[in-house]
User: What shape does this take?
Amino acid sequence: MSRDLNAEQRKLRSLPMFFVGGLPRSGTTWVQQLLNAHPQLVCLGESHFFNDLVPSLTRTVEAYGKRRAVGQDTWAPTVQGPRHQLLSPMLHATFVALVQENLDGRDPAGIMAIGEKTPDNIMHLQRIWNVFPGARFVNVIRDGRDGAVSAFIRFRSKLPPEMTQEDYARAYAEGWSTRIREARALARDRRYHEVRYEALHADPDNAAGALFAFLGADGSPEAVRAALDTASFEKLSGGRKRGQEDTASHYRRGEVGGWSEVLTSAEIEAFESIAGPVMDELGYARAAR
Assistant: This one.
């Protein structure tokens, strides 16, 4: 059966949008898989829409405006290029096209919201809300000590050879604290939801249910349990149980609190000396007192 692309676009254009972000290795991929497992939600993987496609399109329009302003290759009256304030419809249509290209056979008729996950979205909140004022944002927060350990293992080959785990813990603490504080400040009076990695472990049904409800999707126990089963660590990791580590896998270990087995007292102090105030604010107990 052939698709009615125009009808699909009309439906997708009418839907609310959401974006997911967070610090590296905070569980954003797990949340993306969980959201995309819900039949009423489409959550794309890392499209880098706001830190790649939006700037690229904006630069293209700016370059066009400059060429037209000087009448390049034009012998008759020319035009003025559109200002940034007028680009939102174009960017909205582009995001809809991106979602439509990645529906993977899903029928838009039953979809309630469309979204995308890129961790760096947390650094582009102002841009997101400038372009799409009504967009919802999901900030995935994880104990920064676990995030620092996981990120150091995952990205070690890309880091300077001389960077130690203590150096990285300090750098991660800076980014973790700054980005969480900035996101909370920007989110005042916006549609913003925080989901804790630890809560998804300790009480997945309630944490996932609240997340689905925030996005306007069915949060019933049946819908929640089905999505959680589809996005379980065992399925995402290819059959491993939580705690069975594979450092080469994106789903490395799937546990909470592993930092206490890995970080030295000096590395813990390096992280907490910087991130301590935000840890206190979020309720993460300090080890180095």
